[in-house]
Design brief:
The protein has 320 residues and is an alpha/beta fold. It contains eleven helices and nine strands. Helix 1 links the parallel strand 1 and strand 2. The two termini are 38 Å apart. The chain binds nicotinamide-adenine-dinucleotide (NAD). The site of nicotinamide-adenine-dinucleotide has 32 residues, from helix 1, strand 2, helix 4 and helix 6.
C-alpha cells in the first residue's frame, strides 16, 4: 500500500502510546480512523489530538470502547464502525493493543497470566477474525500485528519472569508469518506485517497496572515481585519499606516512558514507512535491530547473564 489517503484504518489500543501516534499520523495523511480501547477518556484525547488541525471534509475519526480479548465487544466495535464510518470495508487493521504483566507461573495468579495472554495474543487473533470480512471487501488491505522483540527473545532481563507476554508475542509473530502464505493463496490483495518494537517510550507500564489491577497502588504480591526484580538487578531491598518499593515502581513507570531510545511518534513513523515499503517484518528501534542480530548470532547464549549484560551495555537499555 503506497499511500493512506482516503483509506479506512482500524486501530486497537488507540488510547495512548503507539496506537495514538498511528492514529495521528494516519489522519494527517488523510486516512479515516476507527479506534478501540478500554479507556474512553484516553481515546477522547487521541481524537482531540487528531482533530487539532481541522479535519479535511468528510474525514472520520471514531472511537469505540471495546476489550480486544472479548469477541462480542470486537463484534460490537465492527458493527459501530460500519454504521459510523458508513462503510462495509476497511483497508488497514492495526492489532496494536497490549499489556505486560502476569509473567510468572509461580508468583502470579492464573487469572493475571491469562489476562495478559488473552489480550496480547487473543486480541490479535480475534481482531483478524472479526475484521477479515471487511478487509476482503476492499481493493487492497494490510494487516499489521504488533508483536515485540519478545516475539523472538523471551526475556526482559535477569531476575524477571516474563512467560505470558513472551508466549503471546511469539504467537503473534508465528501467526503473522504463516498468514503471509495463507493470504497469498486465498486473498492476495491483502498483505500483512509483524511489528517488533524494542523499548518505546509509552505508558505501557502504568496502563498494565490499570488493566490488571484497576489501581495505581501495588498489592502485596506485586511488592514482593518488585523486590525480586530489584534483587535480581543486584539491589538489596531488605532495608526498604513497602512504601519505598511502591515509590520505586511509580518512578520506574515514568522512567520507562522518559528514558526510551525511541518515542511512540518515531515508532509509528517506522511502522507506517514499513507498510509503504511492503515489508512484512518491521523492527522498531536500533535496540530491536541489534537484538535481532545478536539472537540470530548466538541463540544458545540468549538467556545468559553475559548475553544480557553485553547487550544492555551496547544499547544503553535502562529497563529493570
Ligand atoms: N512500549 C514498548 O516498549 C513496547 C515494546 C514492544 C512491543 N510493544 C507493544 O506495542 C503495543 C502498544 O503498546 P504501547 O507501548 O503503545 O502501550 P500503551 O499502554 O501506551 O498503549 C496500549 C493501549 O492499549 C489499550 N489496551 C490495553 N488493554 C486493552 C484491551 N484489552 N482492549 C483494548 N485496548 C486495550 C491501553 O488502554 C492503551 O491505550 C502493545 O501490543 C505492546 O505490547 C510495546
Amino acid at each position: 500500500m503506497k499511500d493512506f489517503a482516503g483509506k479506512i484504518a482500524v486501530i486497537t489500543g488507540g488510547g495512548t502510546g503507539m496506537g495514538r501516534e498511528l492514529a495521528r499520523q494516519l489522519v494527517a495523511e488523510g486516512c479515516n480512523v476507527a479506534m478501540c480501547d478500554v479507556s474512553a477518556e484516553a481515546m477522547a484525547e487521541t481524537k482531540r489530538q487528531c482533530e487539532v488541525e481541522r479535519l479535511p471534509q468528510g474525514l472520520r475519526v471514531t472511537t469505540h470502547v471495546a476489550d480486544v480479548s472479548i469477541e462480542d465487544q470486537l463484534k460490537r466495535f465492527r458493527d459501530e464502525l460500519i454504521e459510523q464510518q458508513a462503510t462495509e470495508r476497511i483497508h488497514l487493521l492495526f492489532n496494536n493493543a497490549g499489556i505486560g504483566g502476569g509473567g510468572s507461573l509461580f508468583t502470579n495468579s492464573r487469572e493475571r497470566w491469562e489476562r495478559t495472554f488473552n489480550i496480547c495474543w487473543g486480541g490479535v487473533y480475534l481482531g483478524v477474525r472479526t475484521f477479515l470480512p471487511l478487509l476482503l471487501k476492499a481493493d487492497e488491505g494490510h494487516i499489521v500485528n504488533t508483536s515485540s522483540v519478545n516475539g523472538f527473545w523471551a526475556s526482559v532481563g535477569l531476575g524477571v519472569s516474563h512467560t505470558a507476554y513472551s508466549a503471546a508475542k511469539f504467537a503473534v509473530k508465528g501467526f503473522t508469518e504463516a498468514l503471509i502464505t495463507d493470504l497469498r493463496l486465498n486473498a492476495p490483495h491483502i498483505k500483512c506485517s509483524v511489528v517488533m518494537p524494542g523499548h518505546i517510550g509509552t505508558s505501557i507500564v502504568s496502563n498494565t497496572r490499570k488493566v490488571q489491577s484497576a489501581s495505581d497502588q501495588l498489592n502485596p504480591n506485586e511488592i514482593m515481585q518488585t523486590r525480586q526484580r530489584l534483587n535480581g538487578m543486584g539491589i538489596d531491598t531488605s532495608a526498604l519499606s513497602d512504601d519505598q518499593i511502591q515509590q520505586i515502581a511509580l518512578e520506574r513507570a515514568q522512567k520507562f516512558h522518559d528514558d526510551a531510545p525511541t518515542t511512540a511518534a518515531q515508532a509509528a513513523k517506522i511502522i507506517l514507512d514499513g507498510i509503504k515499503a511492503d515489508r512484512w517484518r518491521i523492527l522498531v528501534g536500533d535496540d530491536a535491530l541489534k537484538l535481532d542480530e545478536r539472537v540470530r548470532q548466538s541463540p544458545e547464549k540468549a538467556y545468559t547473564a553475559e548475553f544480557y549484560q553485553s547487550f544492555v551495555e551496547e544499547v544503553g537499555w535502562r529497563l529493570g
